[in-house]
Amino acid sequence: MADDESRPRFTLYYVPPSYYSQKVLMALYEKGELFTERVVNLGKGEGTAKWYMEINPAGQVPVLGDRGKLIPESEDIIEYIDREIPHEPILVPSPDTDLGKNVEKFRKLLKQTPVEILTHGLWYNPEMSPGGMASPRDKAGWDEYFIQQEAKLTRMAEEQGHLKEAYLQKAADVKARSELVRDTSRIQAAIETIHPVLDEVEEQLTRTKHGAEGETWLLGRGFTAADINLAVLLKRLTKLGLFSIYCSQNKRKSLWHYWERVQKRLPFLKILELENNYSKSLQK
User: Which residue has the higher pLDDT, 234 or 2?
Assistant: First the structure.
């Protein structure tokens, strides 16, 4: 009994470089909450392994485990964490308050950004990245990967009867992604859709800075779930070689200074370390 009581309450199933995993990791670190880490090793095929598909039939990360209860979807997990750990900082303020309404507004705004299209599209077409980026495969390698994954998932659908529909959906997702990454016009359109989002963010950062004293974040003195979404989005845009087309010391200056400060936050540094260590482990 003592061992159970000393064990962290939460278990997080995640992939360190995952955009959605990083949002939840940052929330847990901001809350200062200990948790058991369960890295889903994509290099070993664990993302579609039977044991993980039984945890989350969608085969997606992250999933939060809480004493037998499983919560998927990053935004739902962040709300759950904030509700179950009600001490400061409050990441998702009450929607009955002005702050809560603004946090929800920017969470929705940032959630609409086409991160998956950008990520998979630029991995397949790195030449479309203005700042340049390293892709783990060339186009021929990606084509082969998609063919092998779709075949593997279709085979597993027949082998794992109770998970058949889940595996068939994953196979369909892979096929759709293989078609998406070849649609360069859609990828370019996704790149352009980020501009109006960051325009709105820039306006809010400027208003917040002028309306309060001391260090402020997106919506005030507190670092909220909206800041988590923004910080992880900026990190992904940087990784994809896109940040320079959206922001510089002369363009969206408030956002530029915000990003400089976010990168110094301890929770941000922690997720960066996790990602780097995971990448190194895959190279061994």
Answer: 234
